[in-house]
Design a protein that fits this description.
It is a single chain. By secondary structure, this protein is mainly β. It folds into 2 domains: about 40 residues, no CATH class; about 200 residues, Jelly Rolls. Helix content is about 10%, strand content about 45%. The longest helix is centred in the first third of the chain and has 11 residues.
């Protein structure tokens, strides 16, 4: 049953524990299971925190004066991006580098939206400005799209600047356990500058916990998000239930302040 429902190890143990505590298969402590609350990712479930106020940083000045910390043009895999196929029980993601682009091809076999990252080796500095061009070339539902994983430890611990390409909307969410308790910072806000089906430039400016989010060089939101040590910056793809989505990414930059 757990396999048919594509449950994680934690969810499987929670299900088994509810029926018979001795049936736990994956070693989840009883105290954790007793205190667990399973709330699937919903973008209307959590009130957003207070938005940051104050002067808006100039990204034009940042790009002129900050130093280039990490640059990927996807002409090779010298910087060790994830390649090949990976599966998580809910979906299959194929990752390739071709024609100067990083290509993510996601097949979602699950009954809810699925998000997966490409698995970069770009660790996030305490202060950074990152940009990437992204384009959805296959995807037919309003849930399909792409974005940036930041504060990423793995595919179950990340923050996500999520783009719903067809809807011209974006969200910012964060989870530490695969989405069972996702904190929603921005929920499906309109992004008039977004160009569906075309290349769009996404960017994040982080000054420690303060984050600013940009789409095609326009500021769309700013919030405080908790930082994690050794977290990565990555590209990501989203697919609705039972959907296939293909996205291209290119020209990935990370800038840091001059020393």
């Amino acid at each position: 049953l757990a396999t048919a429902l594509s449950l994680t190890a934690f969810q499987t143990d929670l299900l088994l524990y509810a029926v018979e505590p001795t049936w736990v298969q994956y070693g989840t402590p009883a105290a954790v299971l007793q205190a667990a609350q399973v709330v699937r990712y919903r973008e209307d479930a959590t009130p957003p925190p207070n938005r940051q106020s104050g002067p808006t940083p100039s990204i034009a000045q940042i790009e002129q004066t900050w130093r280039l910390h990490f640059h990927e043009q996807f002409e090779s895999n010298y910087q060790r991006w994830g390649e090949g196929e990976k599966r998580n029980g809910m979906a299959r993601l194929t990752r390739t580098i071709q024609d100067g682009r990083y290509v993510l091809d996601l097949h979602n076999h699950y009954h809810e939206d699925v998000f997966l990252g490409g698995d970069s080796n770009c660790f996030a500095p305490p202060i950074y400005y990152m940009t990437v061009w992204a384009q959805m070339v296959e995807g037919v539902t309003d849930a399909d799209g792409y974005g940036i994983f930041f504060e990423e430890i793995n595919d179950e611990c990340y923050a996500f600047l999520r783009i719903r390409d067809r809807q011209r909307r974006f969200s910012v969410v964060q989870t530490h356990n695969g989405g069972d308790n996702a904190k929603v910072y921005i929920r499906q806000a309109l992004a008039p500058a977004l160009r569906p089906g075309e290349r769009n430039r996404l960017a994040i400016l982080a000054l420690h916990a303060e984050h600013w989010f940009y789409i095609n060089d326009g500021l769309v939101g700013a919030y405080q998000l908790p930082r994690l040590p050794r977290a990565r910056l990555d590209v990501a793809i989203a697919a609705g239930p039972q959907q296939r989505v293909i996205c291209y990414f290119d020209d990935f930059h990370v800038y840091t302040p001059p020393e």
